[in-house]
Amino acid sequence: MINFTVRLYDRIPVLIRLLFIIALILFTFAFMLHYLEPETFPTYFEAFWWAIVTSTTVGYGDFTPTTTIGRLAAMILILFGIGFVLFFVTNLASATVNEKRRWQKGTLSSSFHDHYIIVNWNERSRQFIEQIQRAYPTRSVILIDDTLSDSPFYNSNSLQFIKGNPSFQETLKQANIRKARALVITAGLEETEQSADAQSILTLLTAKHYCDDIYIAVELLTSEQLPNARHAGADEIIASNIISSLLMTESLEQQGIAETITLLLDVEASPFLRSIPCPDEWVGNTFKEVSRQVYEDSKLLLGISKDGQTTLNPEGSTVIHEDDSIFMLDSSR
Question: Which of 27, 141, 257, 265 gives a 20 to 30 Å CA spacing to 281?
Fold first, then answer.
């Protein structure tokens, strides 16, 4: 029993132990003074008040012991109580500074919930975080990166940096991935595009193995890795090089298309592109019927996605099913 109590005591944080010792000292001396000098300290609360102001060196002087034994008790409280209080305050300040340093260095585990996790620090991830903050200011974001030495975020309670290899489970655990809303894997600054994609696939496999129900979007630079990303369980694949090349090709013949696509994807623009689960009232209706309904609400139906296959502007007779995802332009907020 004694060994169990010792082990339990050792597991308690130092600050909690100090606080417990200080409280025990204050309650003990308050009881002693109330018992020894009931005329000076008629209530236990007044004795406890005196013990607090004495041990914290405030010393208002509204209550003072008058007997010799009472003053001896006060001397002991001053010698031991003040030492414990100062030690507690010093450790509290040290713990605060240490936690701030760990947060800056990326070694502090996150307590975020329903947050986004983005892997690798680059220009795309920086812009992604800025857009999230503008469009969804209440959402928290965690950045995982192994190249930074300090956090790129300053004075923000909704942004946190985790330093570590994203393909390690311990790093993902530190980012509280099981409570996260989604994970975005951007291509790292590797020597070649192939090695960057290989690292992204490895991170994807680790994340899906550790938390198989999290939604993951992964950026790939080469087309060869697209089948591997699908087999690894990627929910969304962003082939950034392919998208860029398509935009550059079409912009030569159709001027302004790149700006139009960018505008459609900008959540701060109006109208903006949305993907939503099929509402119950649309199930069983045709694409043409639903298009007429939503047009009255300043919405424009663009297409349907089912089982990973997207059909833009399907035939008007196409029936919408419960498991379909709907793409639309929405002017409302």
Answer: 265
- Please say whether the structural domain 270-333 has been given the CATH code 3.30.70.1450: yes
At 95, give phi and psi (nearest 5°).
Answer: -65, -40
Task: Sort strands 325-330 and 272-277 into parallel, antiparallel or unpaired.
Answer: antiparallel
Name the residue among 284, 280, 269 with its Cα closest to residue 318: 284
State which H helix or E strand residue 312 sits in.
strand 309-312
pTM: 0.66
Q: How far apart, in Å, do the first and last CA atoms of the chain sit?
A: 62
Helix axes 44-55, 14-36, angle to 10 degrees: 130
* Domain ranges in the chain with CATH number 3.40.50.720: 116-243
Asked if 120 and 184 touch (Cβ cutoff 8 Å), the reply is: no
Q: What confidence score (pLDDT) does residue 119 get?
A: 95
CB atoms within 10 A of CB 263: 14
Q: State the pLDDT at residue 208.
A: 94
Strands 299-306 and 309-312: antiparallel
The CATH architecture annotation of domain 2-105 reads Orthogonal Bundle (1.10)
- Both structure tokens of 329: 């332009």
Helices (H) then strands (E): counts for the chain: 12, 10
Segments of the chain with pLDDT less than 50: 1, 4, 6, 9
Which phi and psi angles does 118 have, rounded to 5°?
-120, 135
What does the chain come to in residues? 333
Helices (H), the chain: 2-11, 14-36, 44-55, 68-76, 82-105, 123-135, 169-174, 193-210, 226-231, 240-253, 257-265, 287-295
* Residue pair 118/129 in contact by the 8 Å Cβ criterion: yes
Burial class (CB in 10 A: 0-12, 13-18, 19+), 213: exposed
Return all residues near 41 (Cβ < 8 A) that are at least 6 apart: 33, 34, 47, 50, 63
For residue 238, the SS3 value is: strand
